[in-house]
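U., I forgot to send this yesterday:
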Amino acid sequence: MPSFANVENVVKGVVSLIALLPGLALITRAIQLPLDLQQLMGGLALTAGVLVVLAVYLFGGRLKRLSAQKVGIAVLALGVVGLATSVYAFSYIGEHTIERSVDGETVQLVVPDRPTGQLATDMVYYQGDYVEAMHDPINGGRIARDIHAQAKPTLWAMIFWYTVAQTLLLAAMVLGAWKVADVLERRRGAARPTEQAA
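Result:
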């Protein structure tokens, strides 16, 4: 039968693997985003997961000295802020991502948050409909180039908010799980003298 003595290692191992899933999901296209953005954010999410696990591991000694109550408050705060940031991040990504048919294939594009110059004038005419604007037989090509040229600040904003949200949620999950594993380890250690005395 499996020994209860290794339960904390199992918890830490499972949580460490879970921390890598958001990045892996993006890289394997389980979550749909524009390809370049998807690859970049997938790599960042994977990196964030690794860094969170490493940080908790390296600061494990300090974590053990914190009370379960303090860690619980930290986990709750990180979780709430992380969830709120996630909602905002995915809302922002959805509002600034459009689909366009190119040579019979549907591709996703990032559109600028605040268009400037001629693109701003075009969007007033098309009432903010980027898809319709790019299908304009005369100006569609220029509008598509303007969108691409002005989309970089929005792209970086997407990356920033997504990475922050993932890092906060991963930190809450990993921190909480490692503290639970520590509590289990302490209880097991406290039970040993009783077992020996019996």
